[in-house]
Write a structure and sequence with these properties.
Blueprint (H helix, E strand, L loop, with lengths): L7 E3 L16 H5 L2 E5 L5 E4 L11 E8 L2 E9 L16 E5 L5 E9 L2 E3 L3 E3 L2 E4 L10 E7 L5 E2 L3 H9 L9 E4 L5 E8 L10 E7 L5 E9 L11 E8 L7 E3 L9 E6 L7 E8 L11 E13 L16 H12 L4 E5 L9 E7 L1 H9 L5 E5 L4 E5 L7 E4 L20 E7 L5 E5 L7 E2 L11 H4 L5 E9 L2 H17 L5 E6 L1 E2 L6 E2 L8 E4 L4 H4 L3 E9 L4 E6 L2 H12 L2 E2 L2
Parallel strand pairs: 5-24, 22-25, 26-34, 27-30, 28-29
Antiparallel strand pairs: 1-26, 2-3, 2-6, 4-5, 4-35, 5-10, 6-7, 7-10, 8-9, 11-21, 11-23, 12-15, 13-14, 14-21, 15-20, 16-19, 16-21, 17-18, 17-20, 24-25, 27-28, 30-37, 31-36, 32-33, 34-35, 35-36
Helix pairs in contact: 3-4
């Protein structure tokens, strides 16, 4: 006989789904599930326990959910001959798990139909949740905003030949430079020693978006004192072009002047996929003995794609928010999904560029990195959601003294820190660092340190930092934000992995509910444990349901799980 626990739902938040009223007298009927398969031609097939045809009666039904991610995997068995394929066995057909009253418990798409024939014979359909649609495209490339100065390179051979034919025979390369204050710039210029009297010099740097349409280029520039802006033969500025020959362009015009200056050059067509900044002199070398360096320092270059999103913040630290980026990505790369709960975010993401092919899921994870919110796809209607974990939204209540088996990692020295140091690559390609106030980092910020009396490291008068190394290009503000997210995760959510198994029915504000209705992203409160020790309601990060035994296994939140996901997304390494 399976064991049942007295588990009820609490929490002041509104429950969005409609829950049918179920009587405890017939708990088996309340827990009954069927599967509805929708085929590409619109036909539907039902697999259920009350079907007259044995080939339509599933057994061994299992399904799972995760947070982040939503619905994950499903499998069941059908009593069918292995040498005959049913008309309802088709890859990518939609599948819904339906409870009493038409409630959709799980939804996804058919992924496999393995068959076996030994002592018995059967077909074992397998399905995957709709979050898998974010892995269908392996060719996804996106230019939201790119501030990486290392992406600016020299001109191509065709452009070089054209310039040489126009008597621009001095064509030096641009380079990234820094001054003593740490400011960086893409320096477009040359030394007069290589400027011959019989030719004209030109220096040009090019950004190649690889066919992704460019929407705009923000630029900021200044000139060293050796560049004579009063000489009317000088010209510098920016282009957007259809190709690297710059035969069809949008131009900033000649920006010659004392500077410094900022501006934005917007594309007039959706065919611009090259950007360029340049400096040239239209005459031969001037008077001998003049200062050597003639240059323009492009202190900020930010290329934005032709995506139509609203830019947030103020340049040069402008960008786009996750709540702007995610709906755009879903609409473009997973149009079969619909938008559900999308939390509005204010953190500005300055760098978000995937110029090499990848899967859209990686882009979603990257957009979520500054937030660590819950995201995934849930029923009904294949809804993509992006929201903060909230115990008030859906919290189940259970008691350890009534059978809840609880396993926790407990405190560990590995997570006992009072600060984090973040090393990163800035837009110029230079390695930099930011850390707590008082650290030996190039930049410091109070957000990266903890001075609370409850921290055991502070109680012992020690300094103990983690070192987080980011592989992505980032700004000081962006690296600080990610470090603060990491530190908060370490300090406020100590590692406390656990598992709980529930069987049968549970209580809900709308009435008793089968345990199959619990999803990753919900919370569970172990009411007979010390709330100060266990932290109150515990976030559920994974569920695994076995219908034959009516058993739901819950995996509770743990810092290690969340931080491993964060580090993976950022391509980051942790020293300790």
């Amino acid at each position: 006989m399976s064991q049942s626990w007295d588990v009820t739902l609490i929490g002041g938040g509104a429950v969005t789904e409609t829950v049918p009223t179920v009587s405890l007298v017939d708990s088996d009927a309340a827990a009954r599930l069927s599967l509805v398969i929708t085929h590409s031609d619109g036909r539907t097939t039902r697999w259920g326990p009350d079907e007259l045809d044995d080939a339509l009666v599933p057994s061994g039904l299992r399904f799972s959910t995760t947070d982040p991610g939503g619905d994950q995997e499903l499998s069941c068995e059908l009593l069918r001959r292995v040498d005959l394929r049913g008309s309802d066995e088709n890859l990518l057909d939609s599948v819904e798990v339906i409870g009493p009253g038409g409630e959709v418990v799980w939804e996804g798409r058919m992924a496999q139909f393995p068959r076996q024939h030994d002592d018995t014979y059967s077909v074992t359909p397998g399905a995957e949740g709709w979050v898998a649609s974010l892995r269908d495209r392996v060719d996804a490339r996106e230019l939201i905003r790119d501030i990486d100065l290392r992406q600016w390179n020299g001109i191509g051979l065709t452009r070089q030949n054209a310039l040489l034919a126009a008597s621009f025979t001095t064509l030096p390369a641009a380079e990234v430079v820094r001054d003593a204050s740490g400011s960086q710039a893409l320096q477009v210029g040359f030394d007069t020693d290589i400027w011959e009297a019989t030719n004209r010099p030109l220096c040009q740097a090019v950004y190649d978006a690889g066919g992704i349409p460019i929407g705009s280029l923000y630029y900021a520039w200044s000139i060293p004192s050796t560049t004579d802006y009063a000489d009317t033969d000088w010209a510098w500025g920016a282009y957007l072009s259809d190709d690297d020959t710059f035969s069809s362009i949008d131009s900033s015009g000649n920006r010659r002047g004392p500077g410094p200056e900022t501006g934005t050059l917007s594309a007039t067509t959706a065919t611009r996929d090259f950007a360029s900044v340049f400096l040239y002199h239209s005459a031969a070398k001037g008077t001998a003995g003049q200062p050597k360096l003639r240059a323009v320092n492009w202190t900020s270059l930010a290329v934005a794609g032709n995506h139509g999103l609203t830019k947030r913040g103020t340049e040069p630290d402008a960008g786009y928010t996750a709540s702007d980026i995610l709906p755009y990505l879903i609409g473009k790369y997973a149009p079969q999904l619909t938008l559900g709960d999308i939390d509005t975010t204010s953190t500005v993401i300055s760098q978000f560029a995937f110029l090499e092919p990848t899967v859209p899921e990686d882009m979603v994870k990257r957009a979520n990195a500054p937030h660590l919110k819950s995201w995934g796809v849930e029923p009904p209607g294949r809804r993509f959601y992006f929201r903060a974990p909230d115990p008030d939204r859906l919290t189940w209540k259970a008691r350890v003294d009534e059978g809840a088996a609880l396993k926790l990692d407990g405190p560990a020295l590995k997570t006992a820190v009072n600060g984090v140091v973040v090393t990163f690559t800035d837009p110029s390609g230079r390695q930099s660092s930011v850390g707590p106030v008082g650290s030996m980092c190039e930049h410091t910020d109070a957000l990266l340190g903890d001075v609370s009396e409850s921290n055991p490291v502070n109680q012992h008068g020690m300094t103990r930092y983690d070192l987080l190394t980011l592989s992505d290009v980032n700004t000081v503000a962006g690296a600080t934000n990610l470090g603060a997210v990491y530190l908060e995760e370490i300090l406020t959510r100590p590692s406390r992995r656990g598992e709980v198994s529930l069987t049968g029915m549970v209580e809900h504000t709308a009435g008793p509910r089968p345990v199959s209705r619990i999803r990753a992203g919900d919370f569970i409160d172990l009411t007979d444990t010390n709330a100060n020790s266990l932290g109150g309601p515990r976030r559920i990060i994974a569920t695994s349901y076995e219908h034959d035994t009516r058993t739901m296994t819950l995996t509770l939140d743990q810092t290690a799980y969340t931080l491993e996901a964060l580090l993976s997304v950022l391509g980051a390494e942790l020293l300790r």
